[in-house]
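In this section we walk through a basic example: taking a raw amino acid sequence and producing a predicted 3D structure, encoded as discrete structure tokens. The instruction is simple. Fold the sequence below.
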Amino acid sequence: MASTAHALSDSQFESLKEKAVRAKAIAYCPYSNFRVGAAFLALDGSVITGGNIENASYPVGTCAERVALGKAVGLLLKEADD
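The resulting token sequence is shown next.
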């Protein structure tokens, strides 16, 4: 049964959620020790993950979602070069 909040099946949602939780392992957060992970499901079915990156200058840190999106853009650019 798919949720009305998104177009994913329950099993797809749980799988994506688990990958986001596992992505917390790659977070770099030496100041807050607050790990955040994100996972995006691409149209081709692949999953792109990212973890937050902290900086000593608080506003310069990068959220997990932005890291994952940057990774996705990098992967697309790499595919375009191939």
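Looking at the output, two observations stand out. The chain has a mean pLDDT of 90. The radius of gyration is 14 Å. In the next section we compare this with other chains.
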